[in-house]
Amino acid sequence: MTDKLPAPLSAYFTAKNRHEIDAMLAPFAEDAVVKDEGATMTGQAAIRDWMIETTRKYAVTVDVREVAVAGENVKVKALVSGNFPGSPAMLGYDFTLAGGRIAHLAIG
Questions:
Q1: Backbone angles phi, psi at 54, to 5 degrees
Q2: Is 9 exposed, middle or buried (CB count within 10 Å of its CB: 0-12, 13-18, 19+)?
Q3: Over the stretch 13-36, which tens digit does the pLDDT of each residue have?
Q4: Most exposed among 1, 7, 8, 69, judged by the fewest C-beta atoms under 10 Å?
Q5: Where does the pLDDT of residue 5 fall: very low under 50, low under 70, confident under 90, or very high at 90 and above?
Q6: Which domains are seen in the chain, by residue range?
Q7: In 3D, which of 104, 100, 80, 106 has the Cα closest to residue 17?
Q8: Rg of the chain's alpha carbons, rounded to an integer?
Q9: Using CA atoms, how far apart are residues 41 and 97, in angstroms rounded to an integer?
Q10: What stretches of 1-108 adopt beta strand conformation (E)?
C-alpha cells in the first residue's frame, strides 16, 4: 500500500519501520508540527526528540492499510504494532505537505 503514498510519506514510514531516526526526520520541514498523545512538537529538534523517545518506548512498526490524498492533505490508516497496551491498533495519520515536505502530522 505504500506505493500509493506521496514520496515524503513513503520515506517516513519506511524509516519508521526500520527505526532509523535520521531517515524518519528527513522528510519533515524545518518548522513542521507533530501532534501525538496530547502533545505538540514544533520544529525538527523537538520532533527528533519525540521520535527518539517514542521509538525507544514503543518500537512500533506500521502497516499502511488505506491512503486518501486530497491535494496537500493525506490521510493514512495503518495497523500499528509495538510495545503498548492494545497492540496492534488501527491509527490515523493526518499529514499536510508543503513544498514536497511534511509540514504537519497529527496521529490519533
A1: -70, -35
A2: buried
A3: 999 999 999 999 999 999 999 999
A4: 7
A5: very high
A6: 2-107 (3.10.450.50)
A7: 80
A8: 13
A9: 17
A10: 28-36, 39-42, 61-70, 73-81, 89-98, 101-107
- pLDDT tens figures, 65-106: 999 999 999 999 999 999 999 999 999 999 999 999 999 999
76: which 3 cell numbers?
A: 493514512
User: Which three three-digit cell numbers place residue 74?
Assistant: 493525506
**Would you call 57 exposed, middle or buried from its count of C-beta atoms within 10 A (0-12, 13-18, 19+)?**
exposed
- Distance of alpha carbon 14 from alpha carbon 68, whole angstroms: 18
Quick count: other Cβ atoms within 10 Å of Cβ 52?
13
Q: Whole-prediction pTM value?
A: 0.94
Ramachandran area for residue 76 (φ above 0: left; ψ -120 to 50: alpha; else beta): beta
Higher pLDDT, 97 or 4: 97
